[in-house]
Amino acid sequence: MTQSSPGRVITIQQLKEMALLSLPAPIPKPIPRYAWTPKKPGCFPDYGKCLQNAPANTNGDAPDTSRADFTWCMIALDWGWSMEETAAQLLLERIDSTKRHRNMQRYADMTVHSAAIALEHNRSRGK
Hints:
mainly alpha, 0% strand
């Protein structure tokens, strides 16, 4: 049966005595799956491998360079390179690309930003 008594005041002790209040269960400390420590190597990831392993573009006649760029950025950031360093290097990796964007700097910055968000999301989920 549900009962209502507007304006009635009851103490925490009374709630405990009536078994209406329980102590919260202790929150266990999460066990990290791995300890992530960025260690910047002497070189960036191999862009050619990312491009080689990228899925096909919508036409099916070449690799999807945008996905290769995104994957390459995620790896570089995971290795410890900063967002600025990664964006600058992406511009160098794409310098001879046949697919050119109108504003390459903006494209690089947006790709690195998206990769950083995805990487943080993966880390928060323990991947």
